[in-house]
Each structure stands twice: as structure tokens, then as C-alpha cells.
């Protein structure tokens, strides 16, 4: 017959396995999706920044001419 501390140890082992599984899912799945979103956001920011820079060049050119 299992004593109460053996039951508690098994319960803790189950919780540790569940935590490890959730960490593995987070590391291998969610972080990859987050990285893709960051890459897309970076591309959009560079594109908008380039557009603003080009507008600045046109304004300066018009002021100087």
C-alpha cells in the first residue's frame, strides 16, 4: 500500500512533467510564431521609414529649388 508521501511524490512528478511539456510547446511553437511576427513588423517599419525619408528628400529638394 502506498503511503501518503509516495502519492504526493507521484503527484509532483506529474505536475513537473506537465510543466516541462508546456515549456517545450512554448519554446518550439510559440517562439517561432512570435519571431515571424517580429520579422514582419520589422519589414513594415523599414518600409514606412524609407517612405518617410523619401518624402523628406522631396520636401528639401522643393525648398532648395
Index terms:
65 residues, mainly alpha, 0% strand
Q: What report would you give on this structure?
A:
The protein is an all-alpha fold. It is 94% helix and 0% strand. It has one helix and no strands. The mean pLDDT is 90.
Order of helices and strands: H
- The number of helices is 1
Distance between the termini: 95 Å
The count of strands amounts to: 0
The biggest beta sheet is recorded as: none
**Which structural category do the helix and sheet elements fall into?**
mainly alpha
Can you give the helix content as a percent range?
over 70%
Q: Tell me, what's the shape? A: rod-shaped
Question: What is the assembly state of the chains in this entry?
Answer: single chain
Overall pLDDT level = 90
Spatial extent as radius of gyration: 27 Å
Strand content: under 5%
Low-confidence stretches: none
How is this structure best summarized?
This protein is mostly helical and 65 residues long. 94% of the residues lie in helices and 0% in strands.
Present the secondary structure layout.
Blueprint: H1 4-64
Amino acid at each position: 500500500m502506498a503511503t501518503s508521501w509516495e502519492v504526493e511524490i507521484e503527484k509532483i512528478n506529474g505536475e513537473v512533467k506537465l510543466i516541462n511539456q508546456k515549456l517545450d510547446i512554448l519554446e518550439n511553437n510559440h517562439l517561432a510564431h512570435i519571431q515571424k511576427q517580429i520579422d514582419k513588423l520589422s519589414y513594415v517599419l523599414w518600409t514606412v521609414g524609407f517612405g518617410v525619408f523619401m518624402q523628406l528628400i522631396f520636401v528639401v529638394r522643393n525648398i532648395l529649388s
